[in-house]
Amino acid sequence: xxxxxxxxxxxxxxxxxxxxxxxxxxxxxxxxxxxxxxxxxxxxxxxxxxxxxxxxxxxxxxxxxxxxxxxxxxxxxxxxxxxxxxxxxxxxxxxxxxxxxxxxxxxxxxxxxxxxxxxxxxxxxxxxxxxxxxxxxxxxxxxxxxx
Length: 147
Fold this sequence. Notes:
This protein is mainly alpha-helical. It is built from 2 helices and no strands.
């Protein structure tokens, strides 16, 4: 009896490795999105703290005009940084979606080969069973022949 061997096993291994590589790239993209989200949250917190400090300075009996001007300049810088992060987030979202679609495609390619392997394995098993039954029938037929 011959042992089953999937002829496309090497191709399947390559596609599995490629899928794993695509998944790692997608995970990197998700991590980058999380880093940007954390940075945006930190900037939002900083901007809120700045607004609170400006509000406190306005109600203070000892208003320092230089501090208010500096706070306003810093607020502009924070706003510019927030816009930059927002733009980066948009570009990153497009890249993450591209990577996600690449993972879906790579996964589909692996599943195609896995299904082909399953079908061929089942065909091989059926052929083995037929050959075994044929051999048993021949043995039974030779035993019952008159000598």
